[in-house]
Write a structure and sequence with these properties.
Elements: H1 3-27, E1 37-40, E2 43-46, E3 60-67, E4 74-78, E5 89-90, E6 93-95, H2 102-114, E7 117-118, E8 122-130, E9 135-143, E10 148-149, E11 160-163, H3 178-184, E12 191-193, E13 197-202, E14 205-211, E15 221-224, H4 226-232, E16 241-246, H5 249-255, E17 261-266, H6 269-281, E18 287-291, H7 293-306, E19 310-312
Parallel strand pairs: 3-9, 14-15, 15-16, 16-17, 17-18, 18-19
Antiparallel strand pairs: 1-2, 3-6, 4-5, 4-11, 7-10, 8-9, 12-13, 13-14
Length: 320
Amino acid sequence: MHKSHIRADKFFYRAYLFLQYFYRLASKRPSEKFSDGLRYGKYQYNIRNNMPATDTRTPVEVVAGILTNTRGEYLLSSRPEGKPYAGYWEFAGGKTEAGETPFAALQREFAEELGITITRALPWLVKTHSYEHARVRLRFFRIPADGWTGSIQAREGQSWAWQQPGAFTVSPMLPANGPLLKALSVPTALTGRLKNGFHGANGAGAYRAVPLSRATPDDQNLLLTQAEYRTRRHNLPPAASLWLAVENAHEAEQAQETADVIVWRVTDGQTAQNVSAVLQNGVSVPLVVSATPALAAQYAAAWTEAGAQAVAGGESDTGH
C-alpha cells in the first residue's frame, strides 16, 4: 500500500474523531450511530462508525482474538513495519484462508505471530470495517486465560502489552479495533435487572448501567427501554454509553445501529431460543441477557459459548 494512502486514512480517521467529539458536545447526548455521512474519495462514511455506506467490495474474512491472562488483562500488539497502519495497536489475528474455519484461522495466526497455542475461544462480536485498501469482516473471539498455552514471542518484530479493561494506555489504536475498547469495559459478570439496572466491575473499578429514570449526572452508562429511546433520543443527558433494552430479534437487529450495549429480557423458553439464534449469527455490539433465575441457570452456559457479553439472572416473570 502506498504511504500516501496510509497518511490519508490516518488523517481522515483523526478528522472523523474530531467531528464525532464536536457533535456529542453540541448535542449533549450519549453516543449513537448517525445517519449523516461524509464523503471521502469514492466512499460515503458514517460519522460515528467510519463505515462507508456505498462500499460494495467483497469483505475479506478476518479473525482477531481478545487474549486474556490470569489477572484479567487483555493482550494488544503493534502492527509491524511493512504492513498498512504500521505501529498502530490491535488485537492479534489475520485473514482466514480458503478452507479454514474461523477458529482454525485464529489458532494459526496466534501461532505464527505470537508463538502460542489456542485451545479454546468464545465467539464475541462481528464487525465490518472499510479501509482504503480493503473492506474486512472481523470476527472477534474472547480467549480465556485457560484457553491458551505457551510463552508469548514477538515473531514479527512487533511490540506487545497487557492492558487493563477500561484503562487502556497504548495508542494509536487501529481504527477498526478502537470501538472495542468501550465494549471491553463492559463486565462479563453482572447482577441486576432492567427495572433497577446492572452492576459489575472491570479493571478500572466498579461499573454500573442505570435506568434513565434513576440516573444522576455522575452516571455514565444509561439504560433505556424502547419507548424511552423513541421519546427521549434527541434530548438525553450526556453519557459514555447507551444501553438499549430489546424484547425480540427485530429489536435486537435494529438496536445494533443505535446502542453501545443491547440488553435482552428473557422470561420464556421461546425467547431464550431466539437469543441463542441471534448470537449464533453474530452481533456487532455486546449483548447482555437479563433472564429469570430458572432460565439463566438453564441457558447461561449456551449463551456465553455463543457470544453473550454477560448473563444476569434477576428478572421476574411479571417484570415487577
